[in-house]
Model the fold of this input.
Amino acid sequence: MERIVDKVRSGERISAPEALLLWEMAPLWLLGSLAMEVRRRLNGELVYYNRNFHIEPSNVCRFNCRFCSYRRPEGSPEAWDLTPAQVEAIARRYVDAGVTEVHIVGGVHPHHDLAYWADMVRLVHSVLPEAVVKAFSAVELADMISRAGLSYTDGLRLLRDAGMASIPGGGAEIFDPEIRQQICPDKIDADQWLALHEAAHNFGITSNATMLYGHIENLSHRVDHMERLRSLQDGTGGFSAFIPLKYRSANNGLSPLGEVGIVDDMRTVAMSRIFLDNFPHIKTYWPMYGRQAAEMALSFGADDMDGTIDNTTRIYLMAGAEESAPAMTVDELRTIAASAGLTLAERDTFYNII
Ligand code: V47
Ligand code: SF4
Done:
């Protein structure tokens, strides 16, 4: 343990077995203090946020992940499928509002094809040309691109030319094949998820990476997940942020599992910061954690609070998160950063400070 702690303190990379040992053995305060040392080296005293909103065009999904509270089958009375005109009307609400990012994500739609989604990106980009369109998880992308008969690179090029400049980190879940098979058997496997992000990075589309934790996985699955991400990042440098996502247990096929507690949350945030030494940012996604845990995560290595959101996402509300109408003003974000002893900084999608 002492040797591992020394390595972290001196900025040396730790291996996967060392990370596992640290995760299993170190007390919470030690993980927190190590993560804060790493965080200070990389990000000083800053807490980043952006002015963003989400568009969730449809919750119709032909997959059926067991942890998902959001998807509905086609024809369900609770399904929605926004028309392009409705999507345009949402985007128009944000003209001249100072927004720098539109985050578009939904289900794996049974009918809409690559051309439909490229048109939607083009539409949003034309209404808000100053904002970055960050669109579609690797799972949605792989599905629409392969159904169009294109390679990942050609499909991504088409979407990039329509105005997509970045990719969110969803669909990663847990890479281990046995766990993946049990929680999201329909999804692309780890190699395909990583290959899609690699193809994006190779021609300048940046992306994020998530990890869904706190269900049936164990700590070695979490370390394995992060190690695969760290290896790809060594090659491409295209990931901006890592986002640990806590499994929320309302209204889905894994509900009987319940949820892990806040100590596990903070240990996970801290271990991400310590292990992923080549990820510039660790994001605490407040609509999922809730404000208090998100604030606490800033003292365990996180440096990014995502954004203002403006009550435009339903994914976490449907899964039981406390935030019933997720929206934060810049003043609220600043108060949270200040109470963690840190300074708020507005950023764009690429972490240029505004
Ligand atoms: O991949 C689904 C997760 C993800 C549940 O890149 C759940 O900036 C918890 O990727 N409990 C999609 N999590 C969201 C996502 C994301 C969110 C915020 C920012 C960014 C970014 C990306 O949501 C899915 C899945 O891992 N999810 N159901 C649930 N019950
Ligand atoms: Fe569909 Fe995504 Fe939900 Fe899986 S997590 S069922 S792919 S909407």
Summary: Residues 241 and 279 are 6 Å apart (CA to CA).
